[in-house]
Design a protein that fits this description.
mainly alpha; 10% strand
Length: 96
């Protein structure tokens, strides 16, 4: 009976380790999947002469989006103040 106790403990320890490893693997896989899913497509847009934020936002706004929200997002992502104008040649980061 003394020989069975160490084997039993070893089997229990291996089972616990496997369960822990599977839990960690599932957790990490789920987190990595969320991070990949949440990443947006990012483009650099070069402002053309005569363009406004309204023009740029209008070209990327979807049917279910409010153009004012898209303009706000572009301003926020590029540190553009509400009263600040954009200029030709300026590069804007636009996330989709």
């Amino acid at each position: 009976m003394k020989k069975r106790a160490p084997r039993r403990r070893l089997r229990e320890a291996v089972t616990v380790c496997l369960a822990l490893a599977c839990s960690i693997g599932i957790s990490l896989g789920h987190t990595a999947g969320e991070e990949t899913h949440n990443k947006e497509i990012q483009r650099i847009y070069c402002v053309q002469p005569g363009e406004t934020l309204w023009d740029i936002a209008g070209s990327i706004t979807g049917d279910d989006e409010d153009i004012r929200q898209v303009i706000y997002r572009i301003q926020k992502e590029n540190n553009i103040a509400d009263n600040e104008d954009i200029r030709p040649g300026q590069r804007l980061v636009i996330n989709f």
